[in-house]
C-alpha cells in the first residue's frame, strides 16, 4: 500500500495512492492532529482505515506533501555505503554513525529547496532510502528488528558542506530549512520484501550523479534499527535515513555544488522519486 499526505481543495488529508489516483480518507483537521499518517501508524489502524472504499481524486489534481509532517525523530546514518566510503577515503565506521535532522527541515517531494543567499557555497545532495517505524522499538534484537518497520520512503539529506565541516559537528550543515525533502509517499513494508536489494539514484539537471544499490549498505536496515533501539526508543512515525551511496558533489573531481535553479531528482526502486528545485532566496 502507498500512503501519502495530500492537499486537495485547501484540505490536507491522508490518502491511499493507487496508480494515478489518490483516495483521501482521513483529514488532519477532522482528527485534530498535526500528522494524520503518523497517528494512523501509531494506533495501528493505517491499513484498515486507508483500505476504505472512498472516491478517488486524480493524482494530477492534488499536491503531494511530505508523507510525515512532524515525526518525533529523524535519525540519519552517515558513511553507511561501502562505495561512499571509497570515494571519501574515510575509515569505515565500526558502528552506525548517527546524527539528527529536525522536523523543520522537512519539505515535500516537489517543493523547492530554499537556501538563503550567501549561507553556503557548498550545497550537496544525498540520495537515501528512509525507513518509517511502525511499532515502538526498544532493545530490539536484529532478528526481530524488521517487525518494527512500517514502511519506506525516499529522502534527500541535503547538506551545506562548508557549514557541516567548519563547525566541528554536523547540526547546522544538515539542518537548514528545506534540507530534508521526503516522499512522494510511504510504501508499506510488505511491498518491499528486501530493502537491501534496491537500486538508488540521484540526478542533477537530468544527469545521473549517483547510481548504486542498497546492497552497498554497511549496516542494513535491520542492524540499524536494532542498534539505535539500544540507546533510544524508536516510536511509530520516526524516520531513519539510512545513508547515501557514492556520487555526492563533495566526492566528485572536480567537486560539484548545487546552485540556484538546479533540479535534483532522487529515486529508490519500488519506493518512488523526489524532484526538487534549488531556489536561492534573499
Structure notes:
The protein is α+β, with helices and mostly antiparallel strands and 282 residues long. It is 15% helix and 36% strand. It has helices spanning 28-31, 36-42, 46-50, 82-88, 161-166, 171-174, 221-229; strands at residues 2-8, 11-18, 21-27, 57-58, 63-64, 74-78, 97-101, 106-107, 113-116, 123-124, 127-133, 149-156, 159-160, 180-188, 199-204, 207-213, 239-241, 263-268, 272-281. Strands 1, 2, 3, 4, 5, 6, 7, 8, 11, 12, 14 and 17 form a twelve-stranded mixed beta sheet that branches. The longest helix is centred in the last third of the chain and has 9 residues, at 221-229. The model has no long low-confidence stretch (mean pLDDT 94).
User: How widely separated are the two ends?
Assistant: 41 Å
Instruction: Look at the structure and give the mean pLDDT.
Output: 94
> How many β-strand stretches?
19
The fraction of residues in strands falls at 35-45%
Overall body shape: globular
Gyration radius, rounded: 18 Å
Which blocks of ≥5 consecutive residues have pLDDT under 50? Answer: none
Q: Please describe the biggest sheet, giving its number of strands, its sense, and whether it closes into a barrel.
A: 12 strands, mixed
